[in-house]
């Protein structure tokens, strides 16, 4: 009988020290001992990619994109080697692979690349030799042999894409929380852990700031109908299954985005500027009339390119409600927040999303208020109803 193949990904905090890498190794060994083949994807040790990014910024506020990829990909190379050494020490066969050694071919978009293919034979040979294969997340190589990276948080995408392309039986994303919550549990203490979440709701959450999963990995999982389990590296709980659900919660969750800048543009130029942002690969978190909101990382790009068209730049935050039946919320929420001294600077509604633009200092309070009013209440009412029926 063919052995089951499991892809396991461990994020930065999970591999943040040699002791933690030891615990990751033990977890991987447990899976191996169950008679399964294992491919492990790891991130850089926590803080390392930020450290490399700030070294680059010290040299140039807009570093060359190709060289930035060479630099940022170094973090993951350290972790794969340390994990392989740890597994050797514990008596297991393991081989570390950088993205290019794994034949991860991407398109040309430096800093935002997409995986096109992998070297199947390489994986097959190593797995048949009973090796644990450890792959550096977040990186690949374009057709010219240049190193590329997949965007911040991209190791999730390496793992899910590998799981899809290798036909894995399971893809597990281990992180520092024990699943996907109705809001970032570091902001809302009473956030509710979701047993499962639909692909499209998870996409909306990730797109609007829930960084527990990298957006492209959820898009990939949805396209190939590949279930993904999000689990804690530090606890044995079940986690959250990201899957296709037959019915979806009314208000599913809140996604928060900090470090966003609101830019007021010269009105006549607004449309042209929006088109230019797209060409520059700048993600617009907001676009309404002559106002756009972009990541802090993209602000210097825009300031250099569009200097004379920018009227004002100010830090803001966004709060996005994801779910169905949002009419009442959209009608009432601005007034309710105002009663709590929270001013909504701008708002936007489409399909299963309501998005609010807020002052950064109001974000956490607004999230706790909306969570209590619209998520906790309906969650407990639904739970009570279910218990009554049972
Ligand atoms: P990793 O390094 O393992 O990839 P990340 O820091 O990228 O981990 O993602 C995990 C973090 O995502 C959590 O620590 C949590 O603060 C944050 N987060 C944001 N929104 C959510 C959410 N809805 N559910 C769970 N975690 C969330
Ligand atoms: N190390 C990269 C980052 O910090 C990729 C990842 O962690 O997924 O963004
Ligand atoms: Mg991450």
TrEMBL record:
Enzyme Commission identifier(s): 2.7.2.4
Keyword Kinase: yes
Catalytic activity: L-aspartate + ATP = 4-phospho-L-aspartate + ADP
Gene3D superfamilies associated with the record: Acetylglutamate kinase-like
Pathway membership: Amino-acid biosynthesis; L-lysine biosynthesis via DAP pathway; (S)-tetrahydrodipicolinate from L-aspartate: step 1/4; Amino-acid biosynthesis; L-threonine biosynthesis; L-threonine from L-aspartate: step 1/5; Amino-acid biosynthesis; L-methionine biosynthesis via de novo pathway; L-homoserine from L-aspartate: step 1/3
One CC-aspect GO term: cytosol
Entry's Gene Ontology molecular function annotations: aspartate kinase activity; ATP binding
Any single GO BP term: threonine biosynthetic process
Keyword ATP-binding: yes
InterPro entries the UniProt entry points to: AceGlu_kinase-like_sf, AKii-LysC-BS, Asp/Glu/Uridylate_kinase, Asp_kinase, Aspartate_kinase_CS
Family statement: Belongs to the aspartokinase family.
Protein name: Aspartokinase
Lineage: Bacteria, Pseudomonadati, Pseudomonadota, Gammaproteobacteria, Vibrionales
Gene expressing this chain: lysC
């Amino acid at each position: 009988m063919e052995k089951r193949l499991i892809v396991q990904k461990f994020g930065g905090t999970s591999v943040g020290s040699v002791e933690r890498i030891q615990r990751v190794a033990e977890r991987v060994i447990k899976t191996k001992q169950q008679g399964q083949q294992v491919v492990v994807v790891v991130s850089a040790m926590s803080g390392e990619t930020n450290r490399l990014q700030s070294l680059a910024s010290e040299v140039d506020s807009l570093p060359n994109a190709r060289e930035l990829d060479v630099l940022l990909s170094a973090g993951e190379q350290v972790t794969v080697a340390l994990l392989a050494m740890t597994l050797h020490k514990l008596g297991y066969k393991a081989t570390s692979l950088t993205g290019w050694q794994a034949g991860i071919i991407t398109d040309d978009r430096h800093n935002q690349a997409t995986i096109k293919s992998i070297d199947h034979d390489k994986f097959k040979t190593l797995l048949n030799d009973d090796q644990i294969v450890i792959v550096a997340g977040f990186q690949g190589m374009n057709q010219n042999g240049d190193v590329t990276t997949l965007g911040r948080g991209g190791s999730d995408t390496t793992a899910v894409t590998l799981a899809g392309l290798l036909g894995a039986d399971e893809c597990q994303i281990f992180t520092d929380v024990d699943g996907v919550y109705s809001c970032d549990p570091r902001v809302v203490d009473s956030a509710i852990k979701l047993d499962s979440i639909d692909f499209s709701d998870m996409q909306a959450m990730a797109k609007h700031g829930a960084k527990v999963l990298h957006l492209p990995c959820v898009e990939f999982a949805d396209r190939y109908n590949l279930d993904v389990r999000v689990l804690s590296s530090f606890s044995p709980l079940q986690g959250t299954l990201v899957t296709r659900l037959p019915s979806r919660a009314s208000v599913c969750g809140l996604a928060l985005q900090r470090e966003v800048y609101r830019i007021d543009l010269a009105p006549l130029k607004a449309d042209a500027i929006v088109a230019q942002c797209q060409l520059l690969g700048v993600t617009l978190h907001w676009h309404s009339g002559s106002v756009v909101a972009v990541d802090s990382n993209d602000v210097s790009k825009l300031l250099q390119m569009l200097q004379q068209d920018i009227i004002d730049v100010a830090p803001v935050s966004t709060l996005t409600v994801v779910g169905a039946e949002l009419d009442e919320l959209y009608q009432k929420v601005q007034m309710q927040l105002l009663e709590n001294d929270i001013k909504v600077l701008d708002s936007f509604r489409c399909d299963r999303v309501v998005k609010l633009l807020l002052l950064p200092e109001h974000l956490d309070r607004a999230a706790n208020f909306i969570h209590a009013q619209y998520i906790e209440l309906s969650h407990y009412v639904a739970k009570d109803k279910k218990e009554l029926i049972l």
